[in-house]
Amino acid sequence: MFSPQTTQTTPGTISTEESSISTAPLEYFKKAISSEIQYVREQKAKGRGIVGFYCEYTPRDLILAADAVPICLCGSSQSSIADAETLLPSNLCPLIKSSFGYVVSGKCPLVNDSDLFVAETTCDGKKKMYEIMARTKPIHVLELTQKVDNELAFKHWLREVEDLKLKLEQHFGVEITNDKLSQAIRKMNQERALILEIQELGKHRPAIVSGYEVAQTRYRVAGFEQNLHQMRQFLQMAKQRQHSGYQAAPAGAPRVLLTGCPTGQGTEKLIEVIEECGGIVVVQEACSGIKGVFEPVNEQGDPLEAIARKHFNTPCSCMTPNQGRQDLLKRLADEYQADVVIELVWQACHTYNVEAVLIQDYVQQQLGLPYLKVETDYSNSDREQLKVRVQTLLELAQC
User: Fold this and answer.
1) What are the distances in angstroms from CA 32 to CA 28, 154, 196, 215, 382?
2) What predicted TM-score, i.e. pTM, was given to this entire model?
3) How far apart are CA 203 and CA 332, in angstroms?
4) CB neighbour burial string for 152-170, b if at least 16 within 10 angstroms, e if fewer
5) How far apart are CA 43 and CA 63, in angstroms?
6) What are the pLDDT digits (tens) for 298-326?
7) What is the tens place of the pLDDT at every residue in 158-187?
8) Which numeric CATH code is attached to 32-180?
9) Matching Gene3D superfamilies, A to Z (predicted)?
10) Cα 383 to Cα 62, 377, 386, 388, distances in angstroms
11) Distance (Å, rounded) from C-alpha 142 to C-alpha 116?
C-alpha cells in the first residue's frame, strides 16, 4: 500500500486542508437524483415531453429542440438486478439488467415519467431488452450503423436521426425547426463544455480532484440549470483547492487512465479500489467520462447533419473498425500524463471484452504503458481480489 500524504482522503471524506473550502457541489451531486425527479415532474406538469434513452448515441440536442426533457436511464444499481432476472438471463451485462430492473419493477420515477424511450442498437442485449420493453412502453428504435469510416453508413445514420426528429414531432405535436435545432446545439455544447472542463481537471499534477469526485458529477437529466450551476460550483471548488495547495493524492501517485465500460453513481467500485490502493484516476475515457464530450456539435452548416456527425464519431467498441478509440487513448495518455491504463469490462459486455485484445496490444506496444483488464460486475464480492491485482499493477508502475 502506498503511503498517502496528509492531504489525501478516502472517497467522500473531507481533509483538513479542504475544510475551509465549500464542498457543497460534491454533496449536491450525491443526492442530485432527488432534484432531478422533482424537476422532471414539474416539467411534465407544464406539458413538456419526457424522453428516456440509454446511450450516448442518442442526441440530447434533438430532444431539447422538441422542447422535451432528455433523461439518461442507464441503471447503475445492484438493487434493481434481481427484478430484471425474473425475465432476463442472469449471465447478462449488469448495466442492461440494472436498467431493465427499473422498468419491470416500476421503482424509478424517471422511467415511470418518460413518455417515449429511444432504443439505440449498439448492443445485442439492449436490442432484445427493448423488444420486451416495447410490450408496455412506447419505443422508437434508433438504428446505429457501425462502419464508422463508411460514408454510406453515415448517410443511413443521418436518415435514422431524421426519422427520430419526425417521431419526436409526431409524438409531442411540435415542429422542430432549424432555428430550434441551432439553439439546442448551442445549449448542449455549453453543457458538454462544462463536463469537459471538469474532466480536464485531471490534467493537474499533483491532482486537485480525485477520479471518484469527478465521477460523481455525471447526472441523468440534460438541460437542467441546477445541475449546470453545481458543475460551475465544482469548478470553483477545484480552483480554490489549487490556490490553497490542496492535493487529492500524493505527488508521486500513479496516474491512471481508466478505459472501457461506463460507470455511474453506485458502480464506481474500480475507481474506489484504484484510489484506495494509492493511485489516482486522472481521466475516464468511457462514455461516462470524456468520450461523449471531447467533440462538440459543429454550429455551422446543416444542424441536423452536424448532430448526426458528432454522435456518429463516438468511438464506442460497437463500431468497426474502432480506430477512433485508440486515437483518443493516445491523446488522453499524453495530455493527462498517464502512468498506467486500466480497462473496465462489465461481465458479458462482449464488444469491450473482445476489443480489449486490441487495446492491450496498443497500450503496451504503441503507448508503452502497463495495462490491466478488469472484468467484473456491480457487486462487491470481488473487491478484495481487485485490490490485490490493482495494487500489483501500481507497484510495477512505480518501479
Assistant:
1) 6, 36, 19, 13, 28
2) 0.94
3) 9
4) ebbeebbebbeebbebbee
5) 14
6) 999 999 999 999 999 999 999 999 999 99
7) 999 999 999 999 999 999 999 999 999 999
8) 3.40.50.11890
9) 1.20.1270.370, 3.40.50.11890, 3.40.50.11900
10) 40, 10, 5, 9
11) 13
